[in-house]
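Hi C.,

You asked whether I'd gotten around to modeling the 80-residue construct. I have! Everything is below, sequence then structure, no commentary in between.
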Amino acid sequence: MFVKITAKRQVTFPARVLDALGVKPGDRLELEKSPDGFVLRARIVDQTRLAPLRGKLRRGKGAFNLEVFRSKAHDRALRD
């Protein structure tokens, strides 16, 4: 299967590929370098894994920012 790269270096994946990955608009894809090239993985946030954070966030202290949380070092068990 081939995909075309636009002048802006954007790629459009066929719907069947995105369906197989289980992704939808707003989800992220991860490219991981491997000896054979790159591996494409869906990075979907499992909302149930955020449950341990419930009650630990203080009201009035700003909204929880998932991207900031991801950028900091944490126990791998807490990462998606």
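If it helps when you're writing up: The chain has one domain: 15-78.

Thanks,
B.
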